Amino acid sequence: MKYDLVLLHAPSVYDFRKDALLAGPISDVVPSSPIFEMYPIGITSIAEYLERYGLRVKIINIANRMLMNENFDVEKKLKGIKTKAFGIDLHWLPHAHGSIELARIVKRLHPEVPMIFGGLSATYYHKELIEYPCIDFVMRGDSTEKLMLLLMNKIEAGNTHYADIPNLTWKKGSDVGYNPLTYVPKDLDDLDVPGYRYAIRSVFKYRNFLDPLPYNGWLQYPNTALLTARGCSQNCLICGGSKDAYDQNCNRSSLALRSPEKLVEDIKFISRFSRAPIFILHDLRQGGREYVKEFFSRLKELNLKNEVVFELFQYADEGFFKQMNDSVPNYSIEITLETHDEKIRRYNGKFNCTNPKVIDTLNFALKHGCKKIDLFFMVGIPGQTYQSVLQNIDFCETIHLACNQDKRIFYFVAPLAPFLDPASPAFENPDKHGYIKLCHTFEDHRTAITQPSWKLMLSYETVDLTRDDIVNSTYESAQLLNEFKLKYSLIDEAGYLEIKGKIEKSIDYINKIDHVLTLPEEQRAGEFALIKKEIEELNKYSICGKNELKWEVKKNYANFFSLALVGIEQLYEDYVNIIRHRLSPKRRQQFQLDSEQTKVKV
Description:
It is a single chain. By secondary structure, the chain is an alpha/beta fold. It is 43% helix and 14% strand. The chain is built from 23 helices and 17 strands. It has helices at 42-52, 62-68, 74-79, 96-109, 120-124, 126-129, 145-157, 196-205, 243-250, 260-273, 289-300, 318-327, 342-348, 355-367, 386-402, 425-428, 430-433, 442-448, 454-457, 467-487, 493-516, 521-538, 560-583, and strands spanning 2-9, 57-61, 82-89, 115-118, 137-139, 168-172, 175-178, 224-227, 229-230, 256-257, 278-281, 308-312, 331-338, 373-379, 409-415, 435-437, 460-462.
């Protein structure tokens, strides 16, 4: 089968199946494993948009295929592919190693086929990336769907004049071009973000449901997510997706919102094939009061069976939860509180309110029908001391008692790991915010992510916490949290002992790895081989229970008839798109960017 574009998702470290890497808790509070096999949702929106114009686009989650089958042959899979271009996402920096290694393999197998990189991290490090022989283009910015169409038109036509495509970094022989980053759309309504229609269609169209799976275990637990906005109204110091970070990295000074109408259309479509929770990414309130009011009004009309999970960035009053409870029968919330310390929260920018206000928010949610609250604390934020980390658990107890020991609240602690986000205020001004950067360049991060323990992967220290302090306080606070949960029967004795054992073994193996690294180099490989299996087991939810982040769902999917009907509809829509563009003499060349801001002076 011939494709126009094949989009690949790499593991964080390409050869994770043979190297012993103690990733520890760095992925405990996200759906994916430590190899970060969950791809960014922008991949599907690119695929959906290009197929709208008659292109054939296939997504292959190489990371997940490798994780699902230890005998999966990556090179055999890639060798037989016929396509006009390959794309690899580099959205999250932990993929610094795997993305490049995968690109090298692709370029060796298909030397004449262009390789395109994209994502927030690719945008930040585009000048370094374009120097790699295996990379031909870097598409910069947070909204590249339409720009990818322009680039694919050039590739298809054999046109090597790339200077008129906004946001593109390119090379042609010894020439390198950095086109101005001028395409910054104001809204998301003409895109599917994510492209679930594409995802469903591609399974039928390309006759393979394993390649595009979002993460390991998705078939058993098919969570979905919807993006409310690109950009952010908050300016958290450690976030590469903060207001300042988007301004610097993507030239975005304001939010690009998806309208309530489109969001609810997306929710309705998801509910036709899935009964699993739907995550609404970002705080809805970024769109303003009328935006929230319209969203809940439209949502109420659906009589939705799925649970909806909302993020909160700041304090919410009782009226907000009344709206939620009135609009959706089942809802939960997620709050990244980060710390008990009000001063640190105020400085860092996340949940900037008093602790009584935090407790009020939780009680309002519980009072008005919230099914589950996930509350996250973090280790490694600005101004945090070792003692302050441990005091987070005291605050968990304070919250628990103030909320009548309600078992709908779930408590988590995790490190800021492995990297400090590029473009975040803390990364750009480390001295000002109390950080000591250990990684600066892209290659620094590539080297760091391959280190044998997460302590050695850390790209930073703070003036208050060394790498050892970050590791030790993470494990110590995790054990205190474990004891707190047992005390209030939030976990049973067996769960407590399992987590306690994993924490103790993790600390032991951190020390073992430190010891192995003191041995002569020729001895290290043998020593690491001896502990590889144990390390792989410890990487699975090392400081929390494996089911704590899950939502109870009695039925994951809609009935077979509904699934089949969705598939048939999407295949028909694809057929219509293909015919439409084959009949048009100008085909996709008729497309023009829809904003004055896209004009580039060459």
